[in-house]
C-alpha cells in the first residue's frame, strides 16, 4: 500500500515539474513579508523560497506507535506517512519558519556550498523522523491521538495547530509560545499573558528555592528569588507563533476575503498559511497576482538516518525547483494563518498593521476579530503548561539540547 501511495504522489510531483516558470508580470511577488520584482529580483526570490525548510512525505523511518485499545504501542504503526501526513508536514514547515526567524532571522539564506550556523542544524534535528525528535512525525502523530485522531488519519489545519501548541510546551530550548485563536477571535490580553508566563521555564531551571538562583551565603530564598526575577525581566516575552484557524466560505473561498487574505503575506510577521484542497495540504508562503505560491509536501523521500549530534544531509530539506502556484479561487476555505512575533513590540506592530491594512477595516468583511480584553462569556484563560505525559511509543524529550551531549558535538556540524 505504501509503495502504491508513494508512486501516485511522485507522479503528481513529476507532472508539476513541467509547469511553466514564474510568469513575467508587472505585479510584485510577496513571500512571507518580503516583496520582489520578478524582472530584477528573480534570483533573490528563488533563493528566499529555497531557504525555507521543506518537509515532505518520508518512508522507511522507525514505525510510529499505533493506538490499540487507547494504548500507544511502539513498532506496530506505519513506517511512512505517504497519503496521510501532508498536513502534519505543513505544520512542521510553518513551525520551522518560526524557529528560523527566532534564531537566524528572516533574512537568513541557505547556501548548500557554505557552512550553516549551529542553530540551523539544531532546528533541523527537531524535525527528523525519529521518535526522540521533539517535532518529528512520530511526536505529532501521537500527540494527535489526544485530539481525537488515530495514527495514520488525515488532519485539518486547526487540529495540527493544536498539536503544535501542545508539543511546544516540551521544547525548553526554543521557549516558543504557540497561541491558537478560538472562534475567529484573537485576544490581545490572553496572548500577552501567555507570552509573559515563565512557569514552564522556571520549572526547568529550578534550584533549591524553586528558582534558577541559589541563595548566596546569608541570603534567604525570597531574596534569591527576587534576584532571579529581576534578572529575568528583560527576557519576559516569549517569542510567539500566532495561529488563526479560519473558514472563509462554505465550499470555496468567498471572494470578499481574497484581498485581505493576500494582505497577510505582506505583513513582516507573516509565517505562512496552512491549507490546500480537500485531502491535499499545502504550505502557502506568498502570492503573485491572483495565484498563491506554496511548498508541496507530496513527494515521498527516504527518511534521513543520522545519529544525535551528527551532521544532517540537508539537501532534501530544501525545495530547489521553481515554486508551485495555484489560483486563489481554488483554495479550500478552511485555512490557518500563521504569524511570528519575536518581541512584544513586534506583536504590537502586528496588531496595528491589522487595522491599517485590509484585514480588520470593514466589520462585515473581517477575516477575524482582534479584541483587547478576554470576552466575559468565555471560560477564564489559563496559559498552557507542560502536562505530565507518559507514553509507550515515542518518548518526549525535555529539550532539543538533549540531542547533543556537549558543545563539541556542534562543531562537527560545522565541518
Automatic annotation (TrEMBL):
<feature type="region of interest" description="Disordered">
    <location>
        <begin position="199"/>
        <end position="230"/>
    </location>
</feature>
<feature type="compositionally biased region" description="Polar residues">
    <location>
        <begin position="217"/>
        <end position="230"/>
    </location>
</feature>
<dbReference type="GO" id="GO:0004197">
    <property type="term" value="F:cysteine-type endopeptidase activity"/>
</dbReference>
<keyword id="KW-0963">Cytoplasm</keyword>
<dbReference type="GO" id="GO:0005737">
    <property type="term" value="C:cytoplasm"/>
</dbReference>
<keyword id="KW-0653">Protein transport</keyword>
<keyword id="KW-0645">Protease</keyword>
<keyword id="KW-0833">Ubl conjugation pathway</keyword>
<dbReference type="Pfam" id="PF03416">
    <property type="entry name" value="Peptidase_C54"/>
</dbReference>
<feature type="domain" description="Peptidase C54 catalytic">
    <location>
        <begin position="43"/>
        <end position="352"/>
    </location>
</feature>
<keyword id="KW-0813">Transport</keyword>
<dbReference type="GO" id="GO:0034727">
    <property type="term" value="P:piecemeal microautophagy of the nucleus"/>
</dbReference>
<dbReference type="GO" id="GO:0000045">
    <property type="term" value="P:autophagosome assembly"/>
</dbReference>
<dbReference type="InterPro" id="IPR005078">
    <property type="entry name" value="Peptidase_C54"/>
</dbReference>
<dbReference type="GO" id="GO:0000423">
    <property type="term" value="P:mitophagy"/>
</dbReference>
<dbReference type="GO" id="GO:0016485">
    <property type="term" value="P:protein processing"/>
</dbReference>
<keyword id="KW-0378">Hydrolase</keyword>
<protein>
    <recommendedName>
        <fullName>Cysteine protease</fullName>
        <ecNumber>3.4.22.-</ecNumber>
    </recommendedName>
</protein>
<keyword id="KW-0788">Thiol protease</keyword>
<dbReference type="GO" id="GO:0019786">
    <property type="term" value="F:protein-phosphatidylethanolamide deconjugating activity"/>
</dbReference>
<dbReference type="GO" id="GO:0015031">
    <property type="term" value="P:protein transport"/>
</dbReference>
<comment type="similarity">
    <text>Belongs to the peptidase C54 family.</text>
</comment>
<comment type="function">
    <text>Cysteine protease that plays a key role in autophagy by mediating both proteolytic activation and delipidation of ATG8 family proteins.</text>
</comment>
<keyword id="KW-0072">Autophagy</keyword>
<dbReference type="GO" id="GO:0035973">
    <property type="term" value="P:aggrephagy"/>
</dbReference>
<dbReference type="InterPro" id="IPR046792">
    <property type="entry name" value="Peptidase_C54_cat"/>
</dbReference>
Amino acid at each position: 500500500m505504501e509503495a502504491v501511495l508513494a508512486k501516485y504522489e511522485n507522479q503528481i510531483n513529476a507532472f508539476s515539474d513541467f509547469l511553466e516558470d514564474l510568469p513575467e508580470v508587472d505585479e510584485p511577488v510577496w513571500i512571507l513579508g518580503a516583496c520582489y520584482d520578478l524582472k530584477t529580483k528573480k534570483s533573490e526570490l528563488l533563493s528566499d523560497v529555497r531557504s525555507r525548510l521543506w518537509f515532505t512525505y518520508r518512508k522507511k523511518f522507525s514505525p510510529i506507535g499505533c493506538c490499540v485499545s487507547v494504548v500507544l504501542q511502539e513498532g506496530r504503526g506505519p513506517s511512512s506517512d505517504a497519503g496521510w501526513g501532508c498536513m502534519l508536514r505543513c505544520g512542521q514547515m510553518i513551525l520551522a519558519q518560526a524557529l528560523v526567524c527566532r534564531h537566524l532571522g528572516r533574512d537568513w539564506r541557505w547556501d548548500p556550498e557554505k557552512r550553516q550556523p549551529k542553530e540551523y542544524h539544531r532546528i533541523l534535528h527537531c524535525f527528523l523522523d525519529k521518535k526522540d525528535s521533539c517535532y518529528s512525525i512520530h511526536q505529532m502523530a501521537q500527540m494527535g491521538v489526544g485530539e481525537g485522531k488515530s495514527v495514520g488519519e488525515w488532519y485539518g489545519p486547526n487540529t495540527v495547530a493544536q498539536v503544535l501548541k501542545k508539543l511546544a510546551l516540551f521544547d525548553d530550548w526554543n521557549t516558543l509560545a504557540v497561541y491558537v485563536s478560538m472562534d475567529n477571535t484573537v485576544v490581545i490580553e490572553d496572548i500577552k499573558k501567555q507570552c509573559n508566563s515563565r512557569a514552564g521555564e522556571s520549572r526547568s531551571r529550578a534550584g533549591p528555592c524553586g528558582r534558577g538562583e541559589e541563595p548566596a551565603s546569608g541570603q534567604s530564598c525570597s531574596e534569591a528569588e527576587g534576584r532571579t526575577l529581576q534578572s529575568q525581566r528583560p527576557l519576559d516575552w516569549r517569542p510567539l507563533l500566532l495561529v488563526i484557524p479560519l473558514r472563509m466560505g462554505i465550499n470555496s473561498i468567498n471572494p470578499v476575503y481574497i484581498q485581505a487574505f493576500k494582505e497577510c503575506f505582506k505583513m513582516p510577521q507573516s509565517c505562512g498559511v496552512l491549507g490546500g484542497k480537500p485531502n491535499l495540504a499545502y504550505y502557502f508562503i506568498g502570492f503573485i497576482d491572483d495565484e498563491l505560491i506554496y511548498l508541496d509536501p507530496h513527494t515521498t523521500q527516504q527518511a534521513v538516518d543520522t545519529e544525535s549530534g551528527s551532521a544532517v544531509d540537508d539537501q532534501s530539506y530544501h525545495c530547489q525547483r521553481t515554486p508551485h502556484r495555484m489560483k486563489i479561487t481554488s483554495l479550500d476555505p478552511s485555512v490557518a494563518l500563521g504569524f511570528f512575533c519575536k518581541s512584544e513590540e513586534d506583536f504590537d506592530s502586528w496588531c496595528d498593521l491589522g487595522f491599517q491594512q485590509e484585514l480588520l477595516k470593514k466589520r462585515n468583511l473581517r477575516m477575524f476579530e482582534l479584541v483587547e480584553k478576554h470576552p466575559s462569556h468565555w471560560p477564564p484563560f489559563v496559559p498552557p503548561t507542560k502536562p505530565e505525559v507518559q507514553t509507550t511509543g515515542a518518548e518526549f524529550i525535555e529539550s532539543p539540547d538533549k540531542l547533543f551531549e556537549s558543545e563539541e558535538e556542534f562543531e562537527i556540524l560545522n565541518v
